[in-house]
Amino acid sequence: xxxxASSASPAPPSRSAGFAFILGAAxxxxxxxxxxxxxxxxxxxxxxxxxxxxxPVFAFVLWFRVRSDLPAVLRLGLSRWQTWVAALSYxxxxxxxxLACKLTTSANAILLQYTAPIYVILLSxxxxxxxxxxxxxxxxxxxxxxxxxxxxxxxxxxxxxxxLLALLSGASLGLLPLLLRRAEQPHPAASAQxxxxxxxxxxxxxxxxxxxxxxxxxxxxxxxxxxxPVTWLWLAVLGVVQIGLAYLLYAAGVRRLRAVxxxxxxxxxxxxxxxxxxxxxxxxxxxxxxxxGLLILASVLSHGLHTTLRPKPPR
Length: 315
Description:
Oligomer: single chain
Structural class: mainly alpha
Helix content: over 70%
Number of domains: 1
């Protein structure tokens, strides 16, 4: 790897940062399975309480970035229909995935959620005008084969409703990077000041999405059992790290990479997720899991190298 990198021109800084941001998001997201299974609360309570922990993260980051211009940024973001659609997609992704984890196995929920690249491939051109090439399709297929191989010995046919929710979660997850990109695209006649403010709209989307998630699960959280100290700690990790940090990194990454690349890098999450389970419980992955993980890594890395090293088309 180092020999190849040294003989080629380095990737543009923004793209290098984009890869790092998405990988950091995948690392943070990978805590979801262990965290959700470790919290003895209903799915709606988990959705609401972890959203409450995530809210201050997004609110602080948005305030820190815009300061005195915050009211104008909020007005701009909340006045765009794209913001509300993206926030609803975010909320539904959170809700459906947590419900799926409670109603079916974590392996099923994660695998079925990662049908998301299908929707990216289908919708990248109509929503963003981005071309999806043959290398993109081959890499996504490689990721799918790897994920299927990874969980080959863990899939179950039980939990039909959980499986359906996981599929729906995959659809909304696939829409999310496209909608985040659309939410910050300016109108051709937009002023320079408006264009500068639109950069912060994805953070407004995440803030609004967590407000909606907290409200959706609030009745269950208020009427359910009071969490203990360990449960509060898990909820804080799920909110601050697994949601807050992860989506901030993801929002920064999708501005630097194409939507298909973002989803393929994020597909490392289902490989890291069982790793934390193994470290926390002593449960080791099977041979099929190791082979599937290597296939996914090979697909992601080969696509990244191909994208970086291929000749640029003449203008």
